[in-house]
């Protein structure tokens, strides 16, 4: 019976590799002149990868597919990069956890953060965020994301850096301490737009593993709440974030309940109370 199972597995893997080869041939099909930067056959090839993940969920198959996608991501234009990102986005964590050559995958994708192209960097940050379940503790990944979080001036890139930071924070023991001062600085900077602050402050909900970090995040949230210049929308998001943080860290829960009641009963703004 075991022999039969192994034979079936080998047969499935052979079929999977054949299917991958067919997708590669379709992707590399000689292009016709077009203005979109991607051919229909390439889109068809890229959208076929998640079907292979579902049909043949073997580590060796998924690993080969992801490495191929990472190669295309590295060498092709932003339209192809975007469709590769969609594959990563739609792939389940269960599939991504089966990648064998994580370092090789990162080595193909991470250097794009050094590109002069803000769109390419934005898509790369999104891909890294999608991979957070397997790369959250990688120092080079953390450094690259923090750097773009600090330096990004393009709105889409900054939003991608915030999202990637949030994803890594959710799964890393080390990263919250690395990113904390950058978040604090963004929130205190008067030039930071409201919508960016609304996204950034939410990252604090992940800072519950270390009590010292929890206290620091709590302190920053309270500083925002006590600032008369903080608008109602940011107050609401900060209160919600602080509640999530404290509930996970299991500290000062009574004080937070009292704080919520205080805002509910006494804040004169309709959207807060």
UniProtKB/TrEMBL annotation:
<dbReference type="GO" id="GO:0034472">
    <property type="term" value="P:snRNA 3'-end processing"/>
</dbReference>
<feature type="domain" description="Integrator complex subunit 7 N-terminal">
    <location>
        <begin position="40"/>
        <end position="272"/>
    </location>
</feature>
<protein>
    <recommendedName>
        <fullName>Integrator complex subunit 7 N-terminal domain-containing protein</fullName>
    </recommendedName>
</protein>
<dbReference type="InterPro" id="IPR033060">
    <property type="entry name" value="INTS7"/>
</dbReference>
<dbReference type="Pfam" id="PF24436">
    <property type="entry name" value="INTS7_N"/>
</dbReference>
<comment type="similarity">
    <text>Belongs to the Integrator subunit 7 family.</text>
</comment>
<dbReference type="InterPro" id="IPR016024">
    <property type="entry name" value="ARM-type_fold"/>
</dbReference>
<dbReference type="GO" id="GO:0032039">
    <property type="term" value="C:integrator complex"/>
</dbReference>
<dbReference type="InterPro" id="IPR056516">
    <property type="entry name" value="INTS7_N"/>
</dbReference>
């Amino acid at each position: 019976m075991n022999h039969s199972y192994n034979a079936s597995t080998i047969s499935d893997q052979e079929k999977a590799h054949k299917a991958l080869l067919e997708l590669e041939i379709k992707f590399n099909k000689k292009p016709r002149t077009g203005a979109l930067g991607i051919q229909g056959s390439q889109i068809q090839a890229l959208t076929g990868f998640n079907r292979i993940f579902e049909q043949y969920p073997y580590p060796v198959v998924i690993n080969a597919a992801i490495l191929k996608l990472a190669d295309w991501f590295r060498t092709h234009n932003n339209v192809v990069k975007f469709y590769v990102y969609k594959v990563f986005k739609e792939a389940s964590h269960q599939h991504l956890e089966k990648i064998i050559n994580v370092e090789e995958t990162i080595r193909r994708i991470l250097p794009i953060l050094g590109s002069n192209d803000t769109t390419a960097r934005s898509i790369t940050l999104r891909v890294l965020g999608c991979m957070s379940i397997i790369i959250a503790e990688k120092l080079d990944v953390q450094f690259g994301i923090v750097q773009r979080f600090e330096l990004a001036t393009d709105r889409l890139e900054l939003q991608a850096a915030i999202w990637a930071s949030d994803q890594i924070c959710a799964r890393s023991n080390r990263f919250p301490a690395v990113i904390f001062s950058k978040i604090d600085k963004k929130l205190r900077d008067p030039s930071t737009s409201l919508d960016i602050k609304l996204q950034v402050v939410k990252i604090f909900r992940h800072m519950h593993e270390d009590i010292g970090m929890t206290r620091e995040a709590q302190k920053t949230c309270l500083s925002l709440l006590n600032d008369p210049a903080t608008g109602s929308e940011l107050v609401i998001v900060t209160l919600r974030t602080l509640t999530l943080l404290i509930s996970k860290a299991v500290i000062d829960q009574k004080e937070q309940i009292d704080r919520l009641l205080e805002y509910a009963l006494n804040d004169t703004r309709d959207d807060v109370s």
